[in-house]
Automatic annotation (TrEMBL), chain A:
Involved in ubiquitination and subsequent proteasomal degradation of target proteins. Together with CUL1, RBX1 and a F-box protein, it forms a SCF E3 ubiquitin ligase complex. The functional specificity of this complex depends on the type of F-box protein. In the SCF complex, it serves as an adapter that links the F-box protein to CUL1. Residues 23-84 form the SKP1 component POZ domain. Part of a SCF (SKP1-cullin-F-box) protein ligase complex. Belongs to the SKP1 family. This is SKP1-like protein.
Automatic annotation (TrEMBL), chain B:
Residues 1-24, 282-304 are annotated as: Disordered. Residues 25-73 form the F-box domain. Signal peptide: none annotated. This is F-box domain-containing protein. InterPro entries: F-box-like_dom_sf, F-box_dom, LRR_dom_sf. PANTHER family: F-BOX DOMAIN CONTAINING PROTEIN, EXPRESSED, F-BOX PROTEIN SKIP19. Transmembrane segments: none annotated.
Amino acid sequence: MEVDKGKGEAEETRKVAEADRDTVTLKSSDGKLFEVSKEAAARLSTVLAGMIAGGSIDDNGTDLKQIGSEALENVVDYCNKHANSIPSAALISSSISFNTAPFKEPEEWERKFVDRLSHDALFDLVEAANFLGMERLLDVTCHKISEMMKGKSPDQIREVFNIKNDYTKEELEEIRQELAWAFYDD
Amino acid sequence: MASSPIHQVEQGVTKDDDGEEEQQTRDWAGLPLDTLLAVLGRLDLADVVLGAGHVCRPWRRAAREEPALWRRIHIGRSSKLGTYYRFEPGARLAVRRCLRWCEAFSADDTVFLPDAAPQLKSLRLTLTPLNVICKQDLNDAIRKFTMLEELELSLASDDTALYSSGSLAKTCAVVALSCPLLKCFRLNKYRFHWQSQFGDDEAMEIARMPGLRSLQLFGNSLCNASLAAILDGCVSLESLDIRHCFNVEMNEEMRAKCARLQTLRLPEDSMDDYELSFGCPKMEPDSPGTPGDPDNIGSSWYFR
């Protein structure tokens, strides 16, 4: 009885502590733990915002089985950096507005943040951003990827990303004809 | 020397910017579809149509068969697709294939007119001197955009000869007639010119858009009577931006008429959050408080 009561109190204390904490702990697929600002996580990730609001955040590390430690470290690093930067007015949209505006250019620190990544790390980070519903991080990573593709032919893009040309002869001919006006004219 | 293990042969080796070799092990062709769409969806149309959309089977399938990818299309400044688009039927075909699903189209400084987009709800065009969209084409296209809810036509320089002699008023008339669902309208001049008569003609057409909730008229030469007509005609108007419309005098009567608006930006208000470039206003030479005008007043009347 006494023990149970104690347990309950401990549980209660833990819950209160959890609610008071301004960070959340995330656990990568390979079991590494990362702390991230609760405010930034909720603001930048729709998935984490949902988990925080729904109380499904685990004090001992919320399992994110789809994300490896390197990618999760980058995600957390991005969130924490974002928490310290002044939100750009451009990110705040009004209710009656044109919604066709292209995404805003990455800020200087965001550019540096993705520039240092290897291709593999960039791949993992895009997947993680997409999985976590992080619109802004998707914008920033995709902007980087698009820069790597800009002005390049399909051949050149295959080379950059090490993608195999998986077309049949017939398909290649079809594409060649379709793009004859752009790359294949002699 | 011992030969490399086979699995390393299959890994790609690319050089990064510093010339250092980098091992690549991720399968970019195998990106999950939703991630792939997130990536392709953020590319410039030209980069998909000319490159990424043909890299491998999964990417090509996504670029050709996923309507979600083409709901919003933005074409940036100096897109190299522009030149092709003007001269190559193949390029027009490729662009039109994407436009089938387009709901929101925006372009800076290009020759594109999404005339093959039956679903279009939003259209933003920045018109420049290099722009070869002729006003007849623009008006014809707008006649087809009966679903349009948002429209922006902004002039990016004085020399937009296309819009000489009041043709924007004609375009406004077409919009008023063809786009009953229009909620947001932006019609921005490059600079205010006190002597232009066109502003009033445009305003009288805008007054016939009763569904408008948001209106931005930068540097327009409309006068108080025309603005009053807009406020009377656009009964649902909530937001109005008339910055640099220096022919409007915000007297007591006009202020009373504007009282129902939720957002109001006045002629003299700050331009800090204005997204486009604009020119120094040409004020009436004798008016008090005329801002310094570095340009030669009296030249180039045609842009009014």
